[in-house]
Amino acid sequence: MKFEHVLLGFVAMRPCTGYDLKRWLGSELGRMTGLPGQQSQIYRTLSRMAADGWVAYRVERTAGRPDAKVYQATEEGERVLRARLAEPYEPPVELAARREQLQRFRARDRRDEPWLPTVDPPRMAVILDHVHHGRERALLAHVGWLEHILTDLGRAAPADEAQ
């Protein structure tokens, strides 16, 4: 989903400021989305959405602080959001990329590394194997989560992509 659709979803739920959106994107849940959280990008996107007629804003005057623009979805914005939400869900490019990354992890080359003279190579190999397996488990969990979303939204992952 595009960044502007996520922001539109938020302002359709309740009027909010760019700062409110920044705070959410900086929260634990917001960071997990992987969406950009830079203030400048949020305000540029809101400006573009206002120019496109998706959102409107009112200025709230605040004593001792800068005035705040409070954004809310317009009828056009709500129409755009409903249309976007009605589209069939397409898996993110991330799913294919994560599956490919998992294959590379499984087929990794276990060549000898040029360790420092004071490092015990067999012990370091064991440590690196643990790191590798931990990352592989994390990737498997992430791929499984993405596949679960596809199933939950009524579109099973294509068989040729499944692990």
From TrEMBL:
This is PadR family transcriptional regulator. Residues 7-82 form the Transcription regulator PadR N-terminal domain. It comes from the Bacteria. It holds the Pfam family PadR. InterPro entries: Metal_resp_DNA-bind_regulator, Tscrpt_reg_PadR_N, WH-like_DNA-bd_sf, WH_DNA-bd_sf.
